[in-house]
Amino acid sequence: MPVSSDVSADANTVTIKISGRFDFAVQNEFRDCYYNSSPGEKTEFLIDMSGANYMDSSALGMLLMMREYLGGNTAKISITNCSPDIKNILTVANFQSLFKMS
């Protein structure tokens, strides 16, 4: 499965793991990961990109839609473990100003 999610035992962290291509083909799976997580005020979302080998503009849009759904500026979303190519795409799109990057 290209997109999977895991909720921590205390329900304060939802990790969404991306594998392979992060593109329009996984839109529904990605959206379901945060729609179905029942986030609370303290919930932090981690997008683990360690398994991703490709990202296109539709993935950027999916991340923006997630951010908006989870509260915009108050959303707690971190994008982690990016390959150099994916990190470059996110940097060129100025996503470091919208998401925590590590």
Give the key terms:
Transcription Regulator spoIIAA; globular; 102 residues; 3 helices; alpha/beta; single chain; 5-stranded mixed sheet; 32% strand
Descriptive notes:
The chain has one domain (3-101): STAS domain (Transcription Regulator spoIIAA), CATH 3.30.750. It has three helices and five strands. The chain has helices spanning 27-35, 57-69, 84-92, and strands at 3-7, 13-22, 44-55, 77-80, 100-101. The chain has a five-stranded mixed beta sheet. α1 (27-35) packs parallel to α2. The protein is globular and about 35 Å long.
Strand order of the largest sheet: 1-2-3-4-5
- The domain tally reads 1
Task: Just name the CATH architecture.
Answer: 2-Layer Sandwich
Give the oligomer, counting copies of the same chain as homo and different chains as hetero. Answer: single chain
Radius of gyration equals 12 Å
CATH superfamily descriptor: STAS domain
Helix content: 25-40%
> Which sheet architecture does the biggest sheet show?
5 strands, mixed
SS summary, helix count: 3
Structural class: alpha/beta
Strand content: 25-35%
Instruction: Count all strands and give the number.
Output: 5
Indicate the topology.
Layout (H helix, E strand, L loop, with lengths): L2 E5 L5 E10 L4 H9 L8 E12 L1 H13 L7 E4 L3 H9 L7 E2 L1
Parallel strand pairs: 2-3, 3-4, 4-5
Antiparallel strand pairs: 1-2
Helix pairs in contact: 1-2
